[in-house]
Amino acid sequence: METLKEDILAILNDSKIGPMATLNGEKPYGRYMTFKNEEFTLYTTTEEDSQKVHDLQANRYVHILLGYTNKDASAPYIEYTGKLTEIKDDELKLKITNFFRTLFNSDKGNMVTLQIEPISIKYQPRNGPAKDLLF
After folding, report:
1. What is the pTM of this model?
2. Which of 39, 69, 122, 132 is close enough to 79 for a disulfide, judged by CB 3.0 to 4.6 Å?
């Protein structure tokens, strides 16, 4: 189990951009997002009045893919199923918000930081069957 957690954390620590899917009404809707992680929890930011925020207000569940690269089609990757939760730690919220401000160098609009807690993470290694980590 520890090796599985280490393999997943390696991808979370190295892969910062991937598609995130939400539900827009009854239809899935995906967009590329930039993520920061603290262990298995993911953080991202977006404009407060964006479509993804409206989608998440109606349904707090997301599906995220991380790890695949165009340089290596057989690279390991993860399928991350999570739920949007509230950031309760003000110091952490400030740290994450500042990280994204410096990354995007933007002050446009009212930005909101999203915290996504894992429900399950499926790890697909280079070779062999996928392995699931449930939370």
Report:
1. 0.88
2. 122
